[in-house]
Amino acid sequence: MSNTDDAAIAAELRRLARERGADKTFCPSEVARAMASDWRPLMEDVRRVAGDLAARGELRATQKGVPADPVSATGPIRLARAD
């Protein structure tokens, strides 16, 4: 995926996190679904970019309420603003 696509994914991740606010989470698939009708192929890239944002302290990822790495976690995760 190109840097432009990564930038678009990052922008959508940030937008959803901002809209939901500090106490609400969202599924990475919401980002992929907002970006493409055939959204499943985007999931790996969405998780990778979410991992980049989490590493920079912009997002946090959880799995069953426990902090998780968005890239290496298997199964469903939730994302939220890091603050």
From TrEMBL:
It comes from Tropicimonas omnivorans. SUPFAM superfamilies: Winged helix' DNA-binding domain. This is DUF3253 domain-containing protein. Residues 60-83 are annotated as: Disordered. It comes from the Bacteria. Coiled coil: none annotated.
